[in-house]
């Protein structure tokens, strides 16, 4: 289905990818199930954002954007406090935290843009 090992090697390197994929068959199956649920969650969130795009109520869109910005900031804090402690991911977390903050900033810019339209 997906080339999980190859994607992990490209993202993390060969040694780290082997460690992250688990050492026993049970660990590997748990990790694959976790990745499958993460993919399902991404699909649901994408579908939700697609549905919200057709809502004409600006207040609801502003509320949704605030929630998304808060979610990205919370994810960045989670990465900062927990992922940096994982030895194999220690070099990867600053880039991901920066990405989370950029995504949060994009939602904040959306809020500012809609606020500007509202009060112009």
Automatic annotation (TrEMBL):
Record keyword Isomerase present: no
Organism: Salix brachista
TM helices/strands, residue ranges: 30-51, 63-82, 97-115
Name the record gives this protein: DUF7865 domain-containing protein
Any Pfam family the entry gives: DUF7865
Keywords linked to the UniProt accession: Membrane, Transmembrane, Transmembrane helix
InterPro entries: DUF7865
Domain named DUF7865: residues: 1-108
